[in-house]
Design brief:
Blueprint lengths: L2 H18 L2 H31 L5 H37 L3 H6 L4 H31 L9 H27 L6 H8 L1 H4 L10 H8 L2 H15 L4 H32 L1 H4 L3
Length: 273
């Protein structure tokens, strides 16, 4: 294993070791995704029953509506868990006052980011996996019926989550512990523009313009087309991928700028105090 790979693995293992003998940490990984799936799953079942019984409705239409709702819940958890995975892993270093120790070592900033992203990927798998299983067992919804395109949906949503997380980490480097609350709230604030549960067309015109710039909105438009119409909107996926390149590029540049500033100010040594 090369030097950079060994250092990235060391950082990843440091975080994995926190979960090895801590059942509360392990429970936290899946708690919110499973709880969300339970709440929205029963809501979808109720709405599907009402739609099936309504004049002009039917079991097929009700099933498609429920599937679109459950698919939105599961895929949005990918973005949320991806963002939280990076932010929480970074804040673990702050809370333990470990940043100074990390950068006394040969670990470089790019390797720190790579380690945080790797930990985020692990947390997404551990958190969303049980929710997908709950959806299948309780509601007979199989997210993978979307086909191989699900990999592109997952990847785009995870990259968007990472971009938001790096932006939050940059604010924490600049403003300290006062910005930590943003780790729990920023991505939730984008939910209305992400079109998770409804098409972009229902939004007012000013909100549609903002939604167009959010990669997740294109992913969810593509998800609904695949679920309801059985077709892949490659144009939407193209827009999502292009926007994600812009988002992650801007986030990495912001992180590098704030990291250099924190190092000049000596803020890394006092971080977490």
């Amino acid at each position: 294993m090369s030097g950079p790979a060994r250092r990235i693995w060391g950082l990843l293992y440091r975080h994995l070791a926190l979960y090895r003998r801590s059942w509360p940490r392990l429970l936290e990984l899946a708690y919110w995704p499973v709880l969300q799936m339970l709440i929205w799953g029963f809501t979808a079942r109720f709405l599907a029953a009402r739609l099936a019984a309504a004049p002009g409705g039917g079991p097929h239409e009700a099933g498609l509506a429920a599937a679109a709702l459950l698919g939105g819940v599961l895929l949005w958890e990918v973005a949320l868990r991806g963002q939280m995975g990076v932010a929480i892993a970074f804040m673990e270093e702050l809370w333990s006052r470990n940043l100074a120790h990390i950068f006394v070592s040969p670990l470089r900033p790019v390797e720190l980011v790579a380690g945080l992203l790797a930990m985020s990927f692990v947390r997404v798998l551990a958190g969303v996996g049980p929710a997908i299983l709950v959806a299948f067992v309780l509601y007979h919804f199989n997210l993978f019926m979307l086909g191989p395109v699900i990999v592109l949906f997952f990847a785009n949503l995870m990259v968007m989550g990472w971009a938001v997380a790096l932006g939050v980490v940059s604010l924490i480097l600049r403003h300290g512990a006062g910005a930590e609350a943003l780790a729990w709230s920023v991505l939730f604030g984008l939910t209305p523009f992400a079109a998770v549960f409804y098409p972009v067309s229902v939004l007012p015109a000013p909100m549609r313009a903002v939604a167009f710039l959010v990669p997740a909105s294109h992913v969810f438009e593509g998800m609904r087309a695949a679920l309801l119409g059985g077709r892949v909107l490659w144009g939407q996926l193209g827009w999502a991928s292009g926007l994600n390149l812009l988002w992650i590029g801007a986030a990495v540049a912001l992180f590098a700028w704030q990291f250099r500033g924190a190092r000049r100010r000596g803020a890394l040594l006092g971080a977490g105090e």
